[in-house]
Write a structure and sequence with these properties.
Blueprint (H helix, E strand, L loop, with lengths): L3 H4 L5 H18 L2 H5 L10 H54 L2 E3 L5 E3 L11 H41 L16 H11 L14 H8 L4 H10 L1 H4 L7 H31 L14 H28 L11 E7 L5 E6 L7 E6 L9 H17 L5 E7 L14 H20 L6 E7 L1 H13 L5 E5 L19 E4 L14 E2 L5 E2 L14 E2 L29 H10 L5
Parallel strand pairs: 5-6, 5-7, 7-8, 8-9, 9-12
Antiparallel strand pairs: 1-2, 3-4, 4-6, 10-11
């Protein structure tokens, strides 16, 4: 078992240097193949001496093949271990940096020592500070455990390779055809035996901090290899880097499309084979079942089209500037479908915003929502936030209809996923913490509000656009300073009519399913301007559905306001 004191002294340099020397030795060995094939016994030589000579030649050839395999195995393992140690060193640096920043130390046995809160902590803050320090200590323990787990795995793997080499068990060359000797082929077999395994990630359901602690112990090469070989383990993991999540999810999007196509083909067959009358008609009492099948087929067609549209968005020119690149952070074709797409790398930018769409949003229409995310990204850049990433987060099942949007269940079912996603953005970000904003539209504001109310979101600002209510009566109940809560709603937005007004309850009380309008001055947050909005036809100029989606029009005050907030400015 590797100790913390030992792992803090690990250095990949010697092994990385050794790889070059081992490679030079390997190259000298493999060029001997032709010479070995030429030392077979001469034609026409028979008898005991010839047999003995042939046996000696076979032993030489077998020995050289095994030697080539051993050298190749050592070269591969030394390279893999040196690379893996660089990941462990990075993990150690992250743990020690976190400990120093919060006045903790780590003992040689990995014990976390709390050196106490800042001496100037006020009496009224001591309880909250104690809770915060307990959480930091728990994260430090998780990170130390992951470093030691990875280090032990590396140590065990390397010892296994060395044991095989020392005991002559890398390959058995005695069964090879020595008439066609290839030391390079033997070397390839040995290299496979020298490959280092990648430690398994934490179990599904691990926190973003636990995922990040594991991820910190992997080298960049290991991360990319894991993303390519096991995309299902990397793509959905909050706390893993956006770069490798994108690699993984770009692989998974093809799988999702194939799965949806297979489901569609099966459904088409069911429809084609559906029981009919002799005249080919559907019986009246079977009509409901048949209509359900055809409706499901239509949904699948739209969903596959949505996947195709998303895939087309991802096909950007390799020369696209870094702050304009897309990163696919999630894809799931089940039910209505989910997707998460960032424009700009959220791990490296100074400003990060997560946009949560509302009612009717699904995988079929996701690229329309992503276009709104793109508009906010550009608005933030124009507002001075040149280093910005805007994420379109459809990581929940949004209500399908307006009648469903009066229920809190969709927000309650999705709030934990959004909370964990925001935690993951904090964990995977490099350098100074980013300025983070959560933006909800329509029912998306309800989800953001519920997540903030019930767990506290890792964000600096919240923006509610055309909100039907966010689950609280006052801004201060969102676990963020009220002057960092912003709302806007167009005058002619139909949400003003369908905003689930307070209804009579028991004992004369009024019940509001989703909470009061955040635009209400009594709510306590800030508001910013929107255009009046398109009206319905007729002289009455009634509110319209069209106004509900006009907040992202170019040069509109609402889009400029959102851009400024994302960029850390006042709207």
């Amino acid at each position: 078992m590797v100790t913390w004191a030992e792992v803090t002294r690990w250095d990949p340099g010697p092994l990385q240097t050794a790889v070059g020397e081992i490679n030079a030795a390997y190259n000298k060995v493999v060029v001997c193949s032709d010479d070995l094939r030429g030392i077979n016994t001469a034609d026409g030589w028979h008898g005991e001496a010839a047999t003995a000579a042939a046996s000696e030649v076979d032993q030489v050839i077998d020995g050289m093949e095994e030697y080539a395999a051993e050298v190749a195995s050592l070269r591969r393992s030394a390279g893999d271990v040196g690379d893996a140690i660089s990941g462990v060193v990075n993990g150690v640096k992250e743990v020690e940096g976190l400990a120093r920043a919060h006045h903790f130390t780590i003992g040689g046995d990995g014990e976390i020592v709390d050196n106490g809160p800042p001496p100037e902590t006020a009496d009224g803050e001591k309880e909250a500070v104690a809770r915060e320090r307990a959480a930091i200590a728990a994260e430090l323990r998780d990170r130390v455990a992951e470093v030691l787990k990875s280090a032990t795995d590396i140590d065990d793997d390397f010892c296994s390779v060395l044991d095989r080499i020392v005991s002559g068990q890398t390959i058995d060359a005695t069964g090879n055809d020595n008439e066609n000797t290839s030391l390079a082929a033997a070397g390839n077999s040995g290299a496979v035996m020298g490959a280092l395994s990648i430690p398994a990630p934490p179990p599904e359901g691990a926190t973003a901090a636990q995922n990040a602690a594991y991820w910190a112990t992997l080298s960049e090469a290991q991360r990319t290899r894991l993303a390519m070989d096991r995309p299902e383990l990397v793509g959905p993991r909050d706390g893993f880097s956006a770069k490798q999540r994108d690699i993984a999810n770009r692989g998974l999007i093809g799988r999702e499309r194939s799965r949806l196509q297979a489901e569609r083909d099966e459904l088409r067959k069911k429809i084609a084979d559906f029981r009919r009358t002799g005249g080919g008609e559907i019986k009246l009492n079977d009509r409901r079942e048949f209509d359900a099948l055809t409706a499901r087929l239509g949904e699948l067609d739209k969903k596959i089209k949505g996947v195709d549209n998303l895939d087309a968005m991802l096909k950007q020119d390799p020369a696209t500037p870094e702050n304009q690149k897309y990163y696919l952070l999630g894809i799931d074709g089940h039910d209505d479908g989910k997707a998460i797409l960032a424009k700009g790398n959220p791990d490296t930018t100074a400003h990060v915003a997560s946009y949560v769409p509302g009612t009717t949003a699904d995988l079929a229409t996701f690229t329309d929502e992503a276009a709104r995310g793109d508009a906010m990204h550009q608005a933030a850049i124009e507002a001075g936030g040149r280093s910005t990433s805007v994420i379109t987060w459809l990581g929940y099942d949004a209500p399908d209809t307006l009648s469903n949007a009066g229920s809190e269940s969709y927000a309650d079912n999705g709030k934990q996923a959004f909370d964990k996603f925001q935690d993951g953005l904090r964990e995977s970000h490099t350098g100074a913490p980013s300025h983070s904003t959560a933006i909800g539209h329509s029912y998306g504001t309800t989800l953001v509000g519920h997540a903030a109310r019930d767990g506290g979101l890792a964000v600096d600002d919240m923006v509610f656009v055309a909100s039907p209510g966010v689950g609280v009566d006052y801004a201060h109940q969102l676990n963020i300073a009220p002057d960092h809560v912003y709302s806007t709603t167009a005058e002619k937005d139909v949400i003003n009519v369908t905003n689930f007004p307070r209804m009579p309850g028991g004992e004369g009380m009024l019940i509001d399913p989703l909470g009061p309008d955040p635009m209400d001055p009594q709510f306590g947050g800030k508001t910013f301007e929107s255009n009046r909005g398109t009206t319905a036809g007729g002289p009455a100029e009634l509110p319209s559905v069209g106004a509900h989606g006009e907040y992202w029009k170019q040069d509109s005050p609402s889009l400029r306001g959102m851009g400024k907030i994302v960029a850390g400015r006042q709207p």
